[in-house]
Amino acid sequence: MDEELLIGLLRVFIPLSFLSIGGGGTILAEMAHQTVDIHHWLTQREFVDLFAITRAAPGPGMLIVTLIGWKVAGALGALVATLALFVPSSLLFCAVTVLWQRFSGSPWRVTIERGLAPIAVGLIFAGAYAVLEATQGGLLAFATAGVSATVLMWRPVHPLLLLCAAASIYGVVLPHV
Amino acid sequence: MGALHPPRCCRGIFANPAMASPPDCTSYWLARPSRQTSRMTSRPSPEPVSLSLIALVFSRIGVLSFGGGLIAWMHREAVEARRWLNDQEFLSGLAICQVLPGGNMVNMSLYLGVRLRGALGAMTAILGLIGLPIVIVIAIAAVYAKFDTLRSLHLVLDGIAAAAVGMNITTGIKAARRNSRALAPIAIAGSVFAAVGIFHWPMLAVVACLAPLSIVLAWRSRHG
Predict the structure, then answer these.
(1) Which pLDDT band holds residue B69 (cuts at 50, 70, 90)?
(2) Cβ–Cβ contacts within 10 Å for residue B147, how many?
(3) Residue B43, pLDDT score
(4) Domain ranges across chain B
(5) What is the pTM of this model?
(6) Taking CB atoms and an 8 Å cutoff, what residues of chain A touch B132?
(7) Mean pLDDT value across residues A6-32
(8) I need a surface site. Which of A71, B41, B67, B96 has the fewest CB within 10 A?
């Protein structure tokens, strides 16, 4: 039973590791789809909560996999999920970096960089949309994200300040509406 | 990799980062890893950085980088404070990190770790980066599990999630701005967003179809 769960974690997160082109934000949509809709490891509600926790805490946002693993199969699950997401892409990265440096300035490298960029952009927005869709906020969630993005584009505000502001507005004002 | 055991002089993780490792330690490490780094970089690195310093610096980056500001922290530590590499090298490294799979910060740590001390340096950097945050995140999640019936807690977390998505959107906009203004990349990005985000099509299939197309279009636009 437990082994099945651990193998399930590997099956979901190893492919996601190779797919996380352009950063953790790109696989967010697929991760939500796999863990919530297909495997039913956690509810949409829990996915949003874990996402919020990893964003409010220090460290890379991809640590959400550690929490999903923890939720699915305890400490061992956390370890397996973390390794499944971090190790494959890291090995690939180290191998390719060595080659990549040799091809600096080669037209192929420039073309691949330019070709993959729009894919990553589309996936980042898909991930943002997936999380907003999963929150209960509806239109308010979209508005909050929009305001937060606008502020961040405009001024060098510390992101943690924005998270605190949103947390207090949602926590203090919303329960009384 | 020859000796996996760090020499005794590298034990002080909590040592003052400003103090370089003693000279005998330096010569001990000079032999293998520096040859590796000089292959990766155009110029040989001036002096090897101790593993304990790498662990210390990356733990600090990992723990202090609340709210996804890791890139700014990393730039401050690696380029401005320690001059491990220059601005141009940092940016070209970042470009590689964005093209290859893996979190940008995770890859950037590997990139810096490999440059500084080869494979061992990369491993040290990555463990330093995510070690403490993992403990913190699990601790917060354990507390959360105790209170997850509170409605207001969910509202607070919803608020944080929505604002945090704003950060993702900013990343997306900045990346989109770096792209060319041509129609093709915009159409590709839009299709990927619609397919994966709105229609929930499997990401693997979408990327497998559109990535080659996008690269071919990028190649043609070069010559056209």
Answers:
(1) low
(2) 10
(3) 47
(4) 1-35, 51-179, 181-224
(5) 0.74
(6) 58-59
(7) 89
(8) B41
